[in-house]
Input
Amino acid sequence: DFDSNKVEWLYSFDVHCNSYFIYFVISNVLVLILSPVLLRKSLFALILGNSIYLAAIIAYFYVTFLGYDALPIIQQSEKLLYPLPIVIILYIISMLCHFSFIQSLLHYHYGYHYG
Output
């Protein structure tokens, strides 16, 4: 039966909410707490800020993977982890280019300009 092999949309939404909560706590609450350090113009602030976002994105994908991996009807749920190497490569490129995700996202969301 085809209908018995479908994942309910509420389960998918719950997996997303669980994953997003961890992403939110890491990328927003932790950034808010550490903002005096992260907004400095230093290599340490760049590494710490970009690493926080890397950890948040990895946590989102991993918790999503765990949520779908718990279902026996989902085959090859490890494919949900396939975007992670791309994320890590983008992290490395951002570090080499001295691109700060913290400052860019503050500018995008709140109009913050780093002087």
